[in-house]
Every structure is written in C-alpha cells, then in structure tokens.
Design brief:
heterodimer, A: about 450 residues, mainly beta, Porin, 2 domains, 16-stranded antiparallel beta barrel, two-stranded antiparallel ribbon, 4 helices, 18 strands, B: about 300 residues, alpha/beta, Rossmann fold, 4-stranded parallel sheet, 8 strands, about 45% helix
C-alpha cells in the first residue's frame, strides 16, 4: 500500500468513526469535542509520521528527489529517565538421570528439576546518583519448586566516580570480586549453570555480602588493578565463612558466632592485569584470595586462593561480534579449619579442597557459538565418611548457543557427570534468555 | 628514610609528575576514528589522538578491552558520538577509567552529536524493528557538513582545555573548514547528475550521506538493523533493484561482501567498498576529507556506469 493510500484509509476511517452517532451515550458536547480534538491531533501526528516515512522510504523512482536541506529536529525524543531499567529473564527446560536434580546442579540459578525451571528473572536499575556516585541495583525474582515466588536483593551498591589518585570505592551489597565468574550475573554466563568449584566454595548464590571495596588503577604502561574488599562474613552468601547458624557444613554444625574484632570480617583482595597480545587478541590474568572466620568454631578460619585466565580472539572483520574464540579458566584452593563437633562425633580437622574449570567458547558463525566446559573438584578425605559434598567430581559440558539478536539467546547443553562413589549422571538442558529495556554493556 | 620508602616516594613523585610536565601533548581519546581524524586536523601537534574502535571494525560491537580503561584514565578529553552507538562498550570503560576530566559535563567530554540534526529519531522505542537507536541514527558523520560541526565542537573543547593554544586551534579549524567547504562544492557537483538515484546498502549507515547529496540509500540487505540478511529479504531487494535499475551496493569492511556480490551478480550492480571511518578503505587515505573524496568519486563512477563489476 502506498503512503498516500494509507493516509487516505486512516482519514476515512477516522471520519466514519466520528460521523457515526454515539449510541446509548448521553450527547455531552464538551466530551465529544475533546475527543474530536484529540483525534485530530492524532491524525496530524500520524500524517507527520507518514510524511516523514514517505520522504525517507518512498520507493517511487520518479517522485521528487529528497532535498539536501537539513531536516529540522522532527519529533521530540522520548524523555530519558534518570536511570536505565532492564529486565532479564532466564528459563531452563530439560531432564537428568539424577534423582536429586537440585543437589546435582547445586547452583542457585541452575535448573533444579526435570521439566521447567525459572532460573533467574533480574530487574536491573542503574545510573548516575550525582556528580560523585553511580549506583546499581539487581533485584532477583525466582519461583521455587513449590511454586512460591522469592525476591532476593542480589546487588545494590554505589561506586565513586571522582576520587583522586586513581582510587575508586564501591559500597553496599555486592558480589565479591573474586576471580572472573563470581561477580558475573547469570545471564553473562557462557553455560546453563555455574561451575562446580564456584558452587562448592561459594555456595549456590556466589560470594556476596554487604561491605565496602577500594580499587586502585596502577599508573603503569599496561592495565593493572588492585582490589581490596571488606564484607560481612555471615549468611548463606558467605558459605565457606560464618554461614548461617544451625546449618551443617561437612558434618560440622555451624555455631552462633559474632564479630568481635576486625579479623572477624571477610577480606577479599584481588589483582588483575591485561595485555593486548595483538590487535585481535587480549589476555587477562588475575589472582584472588578470601580470608575470614568460619562458623564451625569460635576461632576457626577459612582461606580461599584463586587464579584466573581469560583470553579472547576477535578478528577486525568481525560482524556483530562474530567470529570469536574465548578461553576462560579458574582454579581455586580452599583451606577450611573445621572445629570439633562433639554431637556429630567429629574432631578438629583441616579440610583441603581444590578444583578448577576450563571453558572454550567458539563463535563459529554469525549468531552461533559452540562451547565446551570441563569441571573438576576434589578434596582430601575428612573425618566424615563418604562426604558427598566434598566428593571428587568431574563434569564435561558441551553446549550450543544461538543468539537471534543481542537481546535474546537460546542454548542447548549436555552435562556428563562422573561422581566418586556414585557413578555417571547425564543431563540435558535447554535455555531461553531475553533482555527487555536498557542496552546491556559488558565488561571485558 | 628507609631505602624502600625512599624508592616508593620517588616512584610516586615520578608517577604523579610525569603527566603534568608542561607542554606535554594533550591526550585525546575518540570512540571512533572519524572523530579522531578531525581532532588531529584541529589539534595538530599539540595533541596525541587514540581512537578506540579500529577503522574497519564494527563500531556497534567493540570489545571493552581493559587497555582502553587505561587510555581513558589518562585522557584529557574524550570525543564520543553521544547517540548510543557506543552504548554496548563505553559505559563500563568509563566506570573503570575513573577520570573526572572526561566525566559528563566536564570540559573534556565532547559530544559529537551536539547541534546535529539527527535523522530517524524514534517517537516510540520498539526493538521489534531491530536494533534502532531511540535518539536517532548514530552514523551522522557520513554527512561531511556534520564533520564541520564536530570540528567546531572539538576546537571549542580544546580551547577550554588549553587556552594558550587556542589561536593555533582556531587557525587549524578555519583551514580545515575552508578545505572541506571547497571539497563539498566539488562533491555536490560530482553527484549532482544523480539526484534521486537509489543505492543499496548492507546496513542503514548512510542516511546522512544520502540526504546531503540528494540520493536514496534506503534499501538494505539486512531485513532490519542488526539482523543478518535472509533469502526472502534478498529476493525482495533483488526484485526492487531490478525494477528501479539500482547500480550500486555499499558494503563496509566487516559486512558480508559475499552476500553483496551475490546480489550484484543477479542485478548487474557494482559492489562499492565503503567505510565510515578514515583508514577503513585501503588506499583511500587517512583523513576525513580523503575518505569522502574516495566515497564520492566511487559513488559517482558507479552511478555513471563506470565502476568495475
């Protein structure tokens, strides 16, 4: 249909609507007049839009040529809010040979049952507070296996923007900057669920708590940044630390503990550096640690150390970001001093665990990416017999992702699990992600 | 003083004073090479310019490399488009850079789109239309007249940052502007005979160029911005190209030239290697004016039927 016939059609329909008598309504002239005026306004704006469309897109080759005169700033742009708002939804569907899917998967945003799972619905708000702070909040909505909706304040923090000496302070509730994956939100993950080692050391929801962090950008010829975070050490988001009293960790009951000195808080230092190997390859290496008390005794402590590597290749001819290859590996070691638990019959003991994951993602053709992740976790034997929570476990996960646009993603993943004293489990998961609202900007 | 403490304090003094040495060049960071090329014209040897996106790179999808954080951290000024082209990568870089000199509203923050009459501003935001930018089409530098506006913006900013060199900057600006004006008249004359001619492009990068020279670059190989070509859309494009005898298809370095070549074979049109950014086309020169000289001449040749098939 040509532009003109669209205009004609719209005008005729509006005239017809206006001409038809209002049935059953009291003929209140004022209201009617207002309606007519509103409709006239609508027609005018529609006409404007059609004219502009016609000017830009008229397929008629013999029509008047477009003028070179600058077009006046036509329509007012929708007013921008003081913050960006986005809603990210992530859902999974699939099945597993495991009876206890939730235990097998572990992660708080992993699929947790055969059938469908609401992995994560995340409302993100961010923007500039004033000339001194930026702020961000991530509110998570989930629906658990019983069908109950849960709300979780994942992050809510302010970051300084104008401190001197290359310093920056972040304060509020936030993910500890330990390694590469821990501070990432689930929609930024390259696989359906989180790595085993993160799950084992940081619990289902990652290491995050209220606190404050200072970072320093080193004034040297390459990118290097140092972080030091001090956070609360209790709660389920400080799993390897004071955790929640009454819980049981590796057979040891978590006691009621309190903060009596600065040493009872959680300390997370990190150093990271990056190098552009070539115009198309970038390498990032980091080292992190986390120190704090744990809840199995009044003077028991935990130390976690981690190293991470990230490498990415993207050629200069990449279109929409494709093709690319990303390689990411993190290894972690944990020393956990477990206090004596007389009721459980467990002595004082030091539990050493370590694990790693290594993953490759290959964006082989526009909009498609194939990945492979290898997970391994193990620990020395403790006093508790056959502790399934610390069993040696190996997992191999190939996945295939399709990105219809920057704002949506479909993923299929297979997990081969080999667990000590249990044997193999197989799982297949499909995933859908969508992003509504503000354009997501990604850190490297 | 202990040796270690002494060493550290010497290091810190060196670090702190290094950048502050008088007459050091101003560090200018441009998000894209077009802004960078114009900044070089205005700043001359008083400035050192870094462009984050490479000339042949897809500017919508630049990786936020950490090395860019360092460049922005040390910048005296940042030139950005300001129309969401860099929305996917600039915000995290700026947060990491923690540089008050280039904070929004600071003298060193230069918004290239300021004062530009943007095309295709959206009344309502709707991503079912593809990746359209609500504030308008961000490729405004494809109209050389907008390049002139940006040059003025950059000159004003450089004068604010380094008033002592303002006369030099103003002199460079007027030389650049008069060269561009002379070229603009030449380009108008070259493309004058083809007013109203239709040209196909892979992506909707060129509405400003089209408006300036009275062309129609309104048929695209992408069905919607950011969505790869589909057979159905290509078939429709081919049909319309045949109907209207379209003679040229514009492709940028990172776009799929093979798709364009297929369409060209079907329609007898020429494939034109274009780039938005100086340095993006081999042999087309490194300056903003050289780039448009190349673009206009190859368009005129294709529309006149002289381009190689």
């Amino acid at each position: 249909m040509s532009t003109r016939s669209v205009v004609f059609f719209v005008l005729t329909s509006v005239v017809c609507v206006l001409a038809s008598p209002a049935r059953g309504a009291d003929p209140e002239m004022d209201a009617l007049k207002r309606q007519v005026q509103e409709m006239q306004q609508q027609i005018r704006s529609l006409q404007d839009r059609l004219d502009r469309l016609g000017a830009a897109k008229a397929p008629d080759p013999v029509g008047p040529p477009p003028t070179a005169a600058a077009v006046p700033p036509a329509q007012p742009v929708a007013p921008k809010a003081y913050m960006n708002i986005s809603l990210d939804g992530m859902f999974a569907v699939g099945t597993s040979t495991a009876e206890d899917v939730e235990t097998l998967e572990g992660g708080g945003h992993n699929p947790n049952q055969r059938g469908f799972t609401v992995q994560n619905v995340e409302l993100t708000l961010d923007g500039a507070v004033d000339p001194y702070f930026k702020a961000q909040a991530n509110v998570i909505l989930q629906i658990d296996q019983e069908g109950e909706s849960t709300v979780e304040l994942e992050e809510a923090f302010a970051v300084t923007t104008s401190l001197p000496a290359n310093l920056q302070v972040k304060a509020g509730q936030y993910f500890s900057e330990f390694g590469r994956l821990n501070p990432q939100h689930p929609h930024a993950w390259d696989f359906v669920g989180q790595p085993l080692v993160n799950n084992r050391f940081f619990g289902g929801d990652g290491l995050r708590n209220p606190g404050a962090r200072v970072s320093w950008l080193a004034p040297i010829p390459f990118y290097a940044e140092l972080f030091l975070s001090v956070q609360d050490s209790q709660g389920e988001t400080a799993f390897s630390f004071r955790n929640t009293s009454g819980e049981s960790v590796y057979g040891h009951t978590i006691e009621e503990t309190s903060v009596d000195s600065a040493g009872d808080l959680l300390y997370v230092p990190r150093a990271v550096a990056s190098f552009d190997l070539t115009d198309t390859q970038t390498l990032m290496v980091g080292a992190s640690a986390a120190f704090g008390p744990n809840g199995t005794g009044q003077h028991t402590r935990t130390q976690i150390y981690g190293a991470d590597v990230f490498w990415k290749w993207k050629p200069s001819y990449a279109r929409g970001g494709w093709p690319f290859v990303k390689w990411q590996t993190e290894a972690m070691f944990r020393r956990y001093e477990a206090g004596e638990d007389e009721e459980a019959g467990l002595p004082d003991e030091t539990l050493n665990d370590w694990g790693f994951y290594s993953q490759v993602l290959f964006g082989f053709v526009e909009r498609w990416a194939a990945g492979l992740r290898c997970d391994y976790v193990t620990g020395d034997s403790g006093a508790q017999d056959a502790d399934s929570e610390r069993a040696t476990r190996f997992r191999l996960s190939p996945d295939l992702s399709f990105f219809p646009s920057e704002f949506s993603k479909l993923r299929l993943q297979y997990n081969y699990d080999d667990i000590e004293d249990r044997g193999a489990e197989h799982s297949v998961w499909g995933q859908l992600e969508f992003l509504l609202g503000a354009h997501a900007a990604h850190k490297f | 003083m202990k040796p270690l403490a002494k060493g550290i304090s010497i290091f810190l003094i060196w670090m702190g004073l290094g950048p502050a040495v008088a007459h050091a060049k101003l560090e200018i960071v441009a998000t894209t090479p077009d802004f960078g090329a114009i900044a070089r014209e205005i700043g001359g040897d008083r400035i050192s310019v870094t462009a984050l996106a490479k000339p042949n790179e897809d500017p919508h999808f630049v990786d936020a490399r950490p090395s860019f954080i360092l460049k922005l951290n040390r910048a005296d000024a940042l030139i950005e488009g300001g129309v969401e082209l860099e929305a996917g990568w600039l915000p995290p870089l700026l947060e990491g850079a923690r540089n008050p000199k280039i904070a929004p509203g600071a003298p060193g923050r230069i918004n290239g789109s300021e004062g530009v009459a943007l095309l295709e501003t959206q009344v309502a935001l709707d991503r079912s239309k593809g990746d359209v930018h609500g504030m308008g089409n961000p490729h405004f530098m494809t109209d050389p007249a907008n390049g002139k506006l940006v040059a003025e913006r950059i000159c004003d900013a450089l004068c604010r940052i380094e008033p002592v060199s303002c006369d030099t900057f103003r002199g460079n600006l007027s030389r650049f502007t008069s060269r561009l004006d002379a070229k603009l008249a030449e380009w108008q004359a070259l493309l004058g005979p083809y007013r109203g001619a239709q040209v196909v492009a892979y992506h909707n990068t060129w509405p400003y160029l089209a408006q300036r020279f009275g062309l129609r670059i309104d048929l695209f190989l992408e069905p919607k911005p950011g969505i790869p070509p589909t057979p159905a859309n290509l078939a429709e494009v081919i049909a319309r190209m045949k109907e209207h005898r379209v003679r040229a298809i514009i492709v940028e370095p990172y776009q799929n030239r093979k798709t364009a070549e297929t369409v060209a074979r079907e329609t007898g049109a020429a494939v034109l290697d274009f780039a938005q950014y100086p340095g993006g086309v081999k042999g087309a020169g490194e300056s903003y004016i050289d780039l448009f000289d190349y673009l206009v001449r190859s368009l005129a040749a294709a529309l006149g039927g002289d381009a190689k098939r």
